[in-house]
Recover the amino acids of this structure.
């Protein structure tokens, strides 16, 4: 969307522009992009999804009206394209999240990531866990010798749950920051400090920029 | 790219990158009258014959396909501008010239349109010197990609972050799997946890023929 360059409104003109000009589709697009590019599941954007659903429903009702009162086919097909595009974003967003849940359901159930799921996703994750546990118990674990029957640990002597697949937070991601982010620490040892300039493309470790993504200062590409 | 064994690392398919590019706006000149369109993604129009208006690329292509408009090529898609960019790319081996983020996808979508209608000659006005522009963009792509490949060779173990100023969306998507795997491998092998008890290791290793440069395995 357009970025204004007028000054003097008291808060940055980009904020103002994004307040008035950003459609939900645009927000959905950004959310979709971040979710796709991120190795772990991000916070579910409940209100955005709800609003998008409502708008899509309204549009579908409008399309029915068009069909009834015989609007010209060109207009109808153009509206249909716009609707399809929005639907794609929404569906792909939900599907990407479901894929992540399927991959990491145990890890998600046992960590604070659980709070990032929507209610329906939580039900889905619970079902995944139940079915998987039952299936593995029945087909494999009950046949293993005592001490190795846990779904979470390799054996009773393991100190922690070492059989749980976890998302790779160390992976590198491509990102762009919306505004400049000043001296920024890249890793725990404080060795690497990086300045992020607005709109430049960087490849960084996901872990280092997790917080910035949550506070929406950085977008994944 | 070769050696890409994990398809999931590319994250976005080319089609999805194109999808993102289709929201970029472009100018069209309609040849008909049409009421305003109130889309979910924004409001466009109303459309009057011969009055230029700005619409998203996907809409422009849809209208063009149905013969309802002509598309005005964006400012940066002229022979002069692109020749400048190409020369600048060739002259600066370590920098990328600023180009629209989706220049590859935008030019591809526009060329597809022109070629399709080239048959009935009405589209020849759309992009003047279409062939010249096309070959310039191909050259620019080649030079840039070659730069990317050379740049990748300089990634070493001490690389914690990479800055890719002015790289475009399609280029990012193509190198993504390779860059991610490379940086991850370097990060993993460079991690201080991997280097334990260097003295013990040094004593245990029998002397063998030099297998090439070994980095940081023996700390003094």
């Amino acid at each position: 969307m357009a970025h204004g360059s007028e000054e003097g409104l008291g808060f940055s003109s980009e904020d103002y522009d994004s307040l008035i000009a950003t459609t939900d589709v645009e927000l959905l697009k950004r959310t979709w992009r971040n979710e796709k590019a991120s190795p772990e599941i991000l916070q579910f954007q409940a209100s955005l999804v709800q609003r998008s659903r409502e708008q899509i429903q309204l549009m579908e009702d409008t399309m029915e009206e068009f069909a009834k009162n015989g609007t010209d086919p060109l207009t109808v097909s153009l509206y249909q394209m716009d609707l399809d595009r929005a639907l794609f974003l929404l569906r792909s967003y939900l599907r990407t999240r479901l894929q992540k849940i399927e991959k990491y359901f145990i890890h998600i159930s046992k960590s604070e990531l659980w709070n990032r799921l929507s209610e329906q996703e939580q039900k889905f994750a619970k079902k995944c866990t139940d079915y998987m546990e039952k299936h593995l118990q029945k087909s494999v674990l009950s046949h293993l010798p005592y001490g190795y029957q846990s779904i979470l640990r390799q054996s009773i002597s393991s100190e922690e749950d070492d059989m749980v697949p976890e998302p790779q937070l160390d992976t590198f991601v491509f990102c762009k920051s919306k505004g400049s982010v000043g001296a920024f620490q890249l890793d725990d040892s404080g060795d690497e400090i990086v300045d992020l300039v607005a709109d430049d493309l960087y490849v960084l470790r996901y872990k280092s920029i997790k917080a910035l993504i949550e506070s929406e200062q950085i977008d994944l590409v | 790219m070769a050696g890409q064994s994990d398809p999931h690392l590319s994250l976005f398919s080319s089609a999805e990158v194109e999808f993102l590019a289709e929201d970029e706006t472009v100018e069209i000149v309609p040849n008909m009258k049409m009421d305003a369109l109130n889309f979910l993604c924004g409001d466009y129009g109303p459309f009057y014959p011969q009055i230029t208006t700005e619409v998203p690329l996907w809409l422009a292509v849809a209208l063009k396909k149905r013969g309802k408009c002509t598309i005005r090529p964006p400012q940066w898609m002229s022979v002069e501008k692109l020749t400048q960019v190409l020369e600048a790319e060739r002259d600066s081996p370590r920098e990328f010239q600023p180009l629209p983020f989706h220049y590859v996808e935008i030019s591809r979508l526009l060329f597809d349109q022109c070629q399709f209608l080239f048959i009935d000659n009405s589209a020849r006005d759309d992009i003047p010197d279409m062939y010249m522009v096309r070959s310039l963009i191909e050259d620019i792509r080649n030079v840039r990609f070659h730069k990317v490949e050379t740049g990748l060779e300089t990634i070493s173990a001490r690389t914690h972050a990479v800055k890719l100023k002015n790289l475009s969306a399609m280029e990012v998507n193509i190198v993504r799997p390779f860059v991610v795997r490379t940086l991850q491998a370097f990060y993993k092998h460079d991690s201080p946890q991997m280097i334990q008890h260097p003295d013990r290791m040094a004593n245990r290793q029998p002397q063998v023929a030099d297998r090439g440069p070994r980095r940081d395995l023996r700390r003094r």
Residues 1-10 of chain A have pLDDT under 50 and may be disordered.
